[in-house]
Write a structure and sequence with these properties.
- This protein is an alpha+beta fold.
- The chain contains four helices and five strands.
- α1 packs parallel to α4 and α3 (about 65-75) runs antiparallel to α4 (about 120-130).
- It is globular and about 45 Å long.
- The N and C termini lie far apart (about 40 Å).
- The mean pLDDT is about 90.
């Protein structure tokens, strides 16, 4: 708890860099991170929060669930897990919870939740870039 504020600031700083990279990548069709200018409710988010932490989601331009799976499996610096707020960067695809023969659900199959932890953001960006090449 004594280091929470420092960790949250580092996560927020890194998340901004990662979100901007993802927003500009041609294989990412959407980035949901409240402090991006493209986020529909950015003004509301900025009124409600001083900073935006490291949790975001992206939609990957993939031909099928297998493309999303290739992307997620290729990530070396993002553990596949559903816990948020720690020091490690994490990712979790919604496709992992769906039947590939019937991909209907509340969330799109090409959605991947990402948490940016305390790792160097340039290493995280390089990892994401490499994994997106495999989609």
């Amino acid at each position: 708890l004594r280091t929470l504020e420092l960790r949250m600031h580092q996560s927020a700083d890194s998340a901004e860099k990662v979100a901007k990279f993802l927003e500009a990548h041609p294989k990412v069709t959407q980035v949901n991170w409240p402090f991006l200018q493209s986020f529909p409710q950015q003004a509301l988010a900025k009124r409600q929060m001083k900073r935006c932490a490291g949790l975001m989601s992206i939609r990957v331009e993939a031909p099928d669930m297998a493309g999303v799976e290739r992307f997620c499996n290729a990530l070396q610096r993002f553990l596949m897990a559903v816990s948020w707020g720690g020091y490690e960067s994490l990712q979790f695809p919604t496709a992992a919870t769906m039947d590939p023969r019937n991909p209907q659900g509340e969330l799109p199959w090409d959605l991947v939740r990402i948490y940016v932890g305390l790792e160097d953001p340039q290493l995280l960006i390089a990892d994401l870039k490499d994994a997106l090449e495999l989609v």
